[in-house]
Amino acid sequence: MDIPSIIGKKIMVFDLDGTITPSKSPMDAEMAELFTKILDRMSIAVITGGGFERFEAQFQALHCTPEQRSRLYFFPTTGTRFYRSNDGKWVQVYADEMTAEERQKIKDAFDQAYKDIDYHDPETVYGEVVEDRGTQVTFSACGQEAPLDVKEAFKAAHNSRRLALADAVRKLLPDFEVKVPGVTSIDVTRKGIDKGYGIEKIEEHLGIPVSAMVFVGDALYEGGNDHPVIRTGVETVSVKDPEETKVVLKQWIADLDG
Ligand SMILES: [Mg+2]
Prior knowledge:
By secondary structure, the protein is of the alpha/beta class. The protein folds into 2 domains: about 10-95 and about 195-255, HAD superfamily/HAD-like (Rossmann fold, 3-Layer(aba) Sandwich), CATH 3.40.50; about 100-190, Eukaryotic phosphomannomutase, cap domain (Hypothetical Protein, Haloacid Dehalogenase-like Hydrolase, Chain: A, domain 2, 2-Layer Sandwich). Helices cover about 35% and strands about 20% of the residues. It contains 7 helices and 11 strands. It has helices spanning about 30-40, 55-60, 65-70, 100-115, 150-170, 195-205, 240-255, and strands at about 10-15, 45, 70-75, 80-85, 90-95, 130, 135-140, 175-180, 185-190, 215, 235-240. The strands form 2 sheets. The protein has a 7-stranded mixed β-sheet, with helices on both faces. It has a 4-stranded antiparallel β-sheet with strand order 6-7-9-8, covered by helices on one side. Strand 4 (about 80-85) and strand 5 (about 90-95) form a beta hairpin. Helix 4 (about 100-115) crosses helix 5. The relative contact order is 0.18. Magnesium ion (MG) binds near residues 15, 18 and 19.
């Protein structure tokens, strides 16, 4: 793995699932410690397709001082929302919500696509399957709260059905973006909402040029949900899992202390 120097950069931007935690799982103690060390030295932005509630669920291990927290920025739902900490409290800076009509149109398209390909939910689901997140509508095959082992079993047996459902939805919604991130999800957003858009939002709202950012993700390959950041020209580091991310962070902490 090639680790570029962090010197001259102003912010590290991370994908969440598969990069700093296993999919929809909590951050471990070692990652939390590395994060606080980084936050003493520079800013961190996290960008994910998931909602803000994912931050609360996955960052419990991260105990920051107010000063460290002031350098941590969260861009959920692929950068269509931005949260930052103000006096120790999280505040939403903006949200690019879709209209109620757009969201209904997407939910109707899922109903129709189920019929078109004769798709049925698994017998046991954990929470909502098609969830309206305001800025996007997200399908999770086993439900939004399904444990990772359940999702991985679904993927192993039925991933082709997820892809077929995404194709069916895509045909019904030519004016929307339909993506298949994570293990069992389908995300539908307005067109042009991807992690490249998220990088542009970070630049716009934090006033940090793309040239002063570095992006770390586990899906930078062609077709991966991190791949769109490449069009912004941001420097990237491709990792295969959170363990590799720790190796990168240790190197960068050493660079910053050098
Ligand atoms: Mg990922």
